[in-house]
């Protein structure tokens, strides 16, 4: 019998619903595989603001730090949109990533054969897409200083807003290493680094560090692509990609775009990892979807697959991860669909029913 | 008889080929409509570097300033990729945009009924897409200061690269005004402003200025969208968009992505306009495609349609612009296709033959 302590952060909107379903899946799979869970629930985002005034209370951070992994659903919503920047739900998420030094955000995009018709892209373009985006997560214009909104000197009351896009060599190196190692471990061994080196100094340094690291990974076939071209190529010919490495801002945009290959944001998990000092963070890449919250319409699969990634990467139980992923696939085979991935001839199910079907299959 | 002086900048790669074909089209349409042309050719990009060492020689800038409009093909290529930033072909293009104060880059994306099968997206999602991206073009992280690569104080030789993402209120206002006016003039009167206001101060100021301007345009239905979501929605449900307003960096990424709706980058023109003091710049949104340069394989249509935009916006000849656009459409009706938009049952044509067919049709 093995025992794992996991910090559980349901967050806002559809967060609590999909997290409930995910914990049910973990409990059931735990019985099968003799894994005992200690779920330590903690507040984050709007829920934490409402309860404590802070989107990431000290106590939540302490719970996360003392766990083996963090399982997070999603944060944010219109209720908190008018708060100043540092007090918004998103600020809690960004601080959590930074505090746990989760600098490498892995976003695998695999098309499910059962869902090819749910994608806006033509079937033959997306069949068998299997790529993974490695997004840097604790630097770039998200965190760069100085930042702010100020009056322009002698600007007659005019204001200017500014953020700093920046990368240090060590920040580039550590996330590039994750991407190279990952590329090594995959059959195609291809790595495409995405930047805007024809315009930005930040990208030039990025590109030169990635190039320098390539010598240590002679098996890896490295290429570079400008971000505008990458945004196009992801739609035009997604199968050309194996591992994509990019910065925080570009990765945010490209990974949401890439989710359409899989048919829905509601299918895509992510893992945010550091160097091992702190627990990894596992979260769906989708948001809190306040418009459908509380209606039993959310797709819990991205959250469930995030739990599978947690089992694989942080808890070193690939066997249990496989079991969850197979159960998800089997339920899709049976024709069950939540609203976001519904297509003709399939059977529509709510969030809870989808979870129950997966639990039964396990 | 009217006479127009146009600065012609063929640039690099496929630039000279597509520009030749475009000038032929302009000459022919000029005969019909009694428009006389004075084409003032000038160097830019790699071609200018090779000839003068400067990607935008003073003389080229003078030619542009003394013309009614600037028609530009494309710049860049691997030959100049290792030059330092300010000496690269792209730097010439950026300086031209800045010097001519061309702050509003209009990128219309319309699907051609003849090309629905050339798009990677499913037919019914893209039929009758008709959106236009208004991209700010002379500010943002492209131009923000300070920028550079420096040793970190006490960093043991480690370097940090940085760029500044910034916007002033006046810069936001002037481009937002263009977008609101444009939305007013269109049947749907919708405007979607794209930013990352949940993270960036720059976007917060952007959003608040756009909101403030909305009062002056009560007919316009204004919405805001985060850039990651926009990248997804452009693929998921492109018909939801009418006018999209966004900053320089996000606009670069989103407009290349949106080109896939039309089937190919090779179909999309753009217009870069200021407040009227200087001539507008008209250019395809595609790059110089060095891999196919000189092979008579390039698609000249984006450049030809850019010339049509020039006739419409700068030369106030919508009649002539319409004639060009109809001729392009007629040639597509006849089944002629360049390689990038080739599909089953169509007739493949080279760049020159495509141009000849359009000239004949006029
Ligand atoms: C909620 C937001 C701050 C976040 C981000 O931009 O990183 C989200 O979009 C994501 O991709 O995880
Ligand atoms: C060539 C490059 C500098 C340019 C840009 O990024 O603006 C191009 O991608 C474009 O979109 O016109």
Automatic annotation (TrEMBL), chains A, B:
Q: Which PANTHER family does this entry report, sorted A to Z?
A: 3-ISOPROPYLMALATE DEHYDROGENASE (PTHR42979)
Q: Which family does it belong to?
A: Belongs to the isocitrate and isopropylmalate dehydrogenases family. LeuB type 1 subfamily.
Annotated protein name in UniProt: 3-isopropylmalate dehydrogenase
Native organism: Cyanidiococcus yangmingshanensis
Q: In which pathway does it act?
A: Amino-acid biosynthesis; L-leucine biosynthesis; L-leucine from 3-methyl-2-oxobutanoate: step 3/4
Q: Which SMART domains match?
A: Iso_dh
Q: Which cofactor does it need?
A: Mg(2+); Mn(2+)
> InterPro entries given for it?
IsoCit/isopropylmalate_DH_CS (IPR019818), IsoPropMal-DH-like_dom (IPR024084), Isopropylmalate_DH (IPR004429)
């Amino acid at each position: 019998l093995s025992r794992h302590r996991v910090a559980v952060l349901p967050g806002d909107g559809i967060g609590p619903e999909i997290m409930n379903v995910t914990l049910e899946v973990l409990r059931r799979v735990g019985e099968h595989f003799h894994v005992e869970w200690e779920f330590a629930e903690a507040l984050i985002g709007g829920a934490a603001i409402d309860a404590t005034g802070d989107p990431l209370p000290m106590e939540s951070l302490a719970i996360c730090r003392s766990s083996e992994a963090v399982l997070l659903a999603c944060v944010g919503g219109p209720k908190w949109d008018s708060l100043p920047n540092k007090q918004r739900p998103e600020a809690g998420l960004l601080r959590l990533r930074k505090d746990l030094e989760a600098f490498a955000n892995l976003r695998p995009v695999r098309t499910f054969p059962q869902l090819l018709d749910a994608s806006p892209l033509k079937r033959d373009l997306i069949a068998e897409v299997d790529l993974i985006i490695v997004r840097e997560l604790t630097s770039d214009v998200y965190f760069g200083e100085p930042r702010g909104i100020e009056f322009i000197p002698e600007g007659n009351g005019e204001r200017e807003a500014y953020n700093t896009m920046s990368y240090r060599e060590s920040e580039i190196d550590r996330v590039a290493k994750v991407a190279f190692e990952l590329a090594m471990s995959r059959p195609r061994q291809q790595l495409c680094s995405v930047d805007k080196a024809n315009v930005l100094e930040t990208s030039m340094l990025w590109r030169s560090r990635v190039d320098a690291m390539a010598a240590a990974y002679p098996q890896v076939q490295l290429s570079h692509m400008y971000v505008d071209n990458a945004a196009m190529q992801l739609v035009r010919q997604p199968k050309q990609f194996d591992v994509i490495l990019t910065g925080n801002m570009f990765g945010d945009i490209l990974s949401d775009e890439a989710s359409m290959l899989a048919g829905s944001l509601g299918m895509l998990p992510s893992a945010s990892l550091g160097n091992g000092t702190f627990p990894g963070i596992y979260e769906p890449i989708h948001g809190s979807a306040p418009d459908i919250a509380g209606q039993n319409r959310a797709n819990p699969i991205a959250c469930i697959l995030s739990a599978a990634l947690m089992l694989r990467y942080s808890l070193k139980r690939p066997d249990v991860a496989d079991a969850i992923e197979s159960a998800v696939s089997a339920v899709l085979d049976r024709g069950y669909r939540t609203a976001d991935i519904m297509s003709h001839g399939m059977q529509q199910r709510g969030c809870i029913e989808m979870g129950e079907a997966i639990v039964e299959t396990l």
